[in-house]
UniProtKB/TrEMBL annotation:
Subcellular location: Nucleus
Organismal lineage: Eukaryota, Fungi, Dikarya, Basidiomycota, Agaricomycotina
Protein known as: Checkpoint protein
GO CC annotations, alphabetized: checkpoint clamp complex; nucleolus; site of double-strand break
Main location: nucleus
Recorded family membership: Belongs to the HUS1 family.
């Protein structure tokens, strides 16, 4: 098994790992010839959410080489804090260096322990050569564990909407959560989004209009092999669909959100709220981070 890559976009990788470090102490990673995948599992019963990311290799790396007996795919688990320390070191040094900085990521074994080795080299402002190496302990999975990276089974969403700027959403959520532990997330096909909280004494709602509704893209599953042949469901654009979620879960998404790009919400009514954070160009993104927030059954 061999892996080596030059990290050409350390800031993007840093922001991704920062996001996962706020959710869980460990994450699973899968490297293929074309993409890098990351997943993070947290305890849904404790207000946790499931998060995953997929990004094209060329958006992060150059001189990318991978080889393994599993169709050139490598699965591993890594502590997010340890990887974050190395990436912050690379980012800080890149800002202080007088010239270009090389950041090389490779997998190796040291003292019988598998490590992800990050080598940072360049010149200081005084012109002296500098080399810093971080060896991050990892667990390499010797068998195919691709099921860890599978998306949770969800019904087809009833509606999708591009969210307002996350800073504005965060301000609204901070004000709503003083009234309840639960937030009602509602949207329709005409660009309306409503966030509300209710208790025995008060009901507070904030509404946005004229948001974009991306077209629904059908996601096929093994349970629905004939889905591609089915015509899209015609829906009333004025009909609102709803998902009740725990503020604790939604705040975990907001607190982990590091990438300043657009976010799409998919509502699977009474099942889940799925949030897609796209990376790169709006028209042709290089990757996506996906957050699954389970619905709280109304009446529970």
């Amino acid at each position: 098994m061999r892996f080596r890559a030059d990290v050409s976009q350390p800031m993007i990788l840093l922001q991704m790992i920062q996001t996962f470090s706020k959710l869980q102490q460990k994450c699973d990673m899968m490297f293929t010839e074309t993409d890098m995948h990351i997943v993070c599992h947290s305890d849904i019963s404790e207000g946790g959410i499931y998060a995953r990311a997929q990004i094209k290799v060329e958006a992060l790396f150059s001189q990318y080489r991978i080889q393994s007996n599993a169709d050139n795919t490598i699965f591993l688990s890594v502590a997010t804090d340890a990887l974050l320390i190395a990436l912050r070191s690379a980012s800080n040094y890149s800002e202080k260096a007088s010239s270009g900085v090389d950041i090389i990521l490779r997998l190796a074994k040291k003292h019988d322990q598998a490590v992800m080795s990050m080598e940072i080299s360049g010149q200081s402002r005084s012109g002296k050569p500098v080399r810093i190496t971080h060896d991050i302990q990892i667990e390499v999975f010797r068998t195919d564990v691709s099921e860890r990276f599978a998306e949770p089974l969800c019904p087809e969403p009833e509606v999708q909407v591009l969210l307002p700027p996350i800073g504005k959403v965060r301000t609204v959520v901070d004000r709503l959560q003083v009234h309840s532990d639960l937030m009602l997330f509602q949207a329709d096909g005409s660009g309306t989004l409503q966030l509300s909280a209710t208790n025995d004494d008060v009901s507070v709602m904030v509404e946005w209009h004229k948001l974009q509704n991306p077209p629904l893209a059908r996601v096929l599953s093994s349970q629905d092999p004939d889905g591609a042949s089915q015509a899209p469901v015609e829906r009333d654009p004025e009909e609102k669909y709803r998902v009740l979620v725990a503020f604790k879960s939604f705040q975990k998404f907001l607190n982990s959100h590091q990438l300043s790009t657009h976010t799409m919400a998919s509502l699977c009514q009474n099942h889940a709220l799925i949030l897609y954070v796209y990376m790169g160009d709006d028209a042709e993104p290089n990757g996506v981070m996906i957050f699954y927030i389970p619905a709280v059954m109304e009446g529970d």
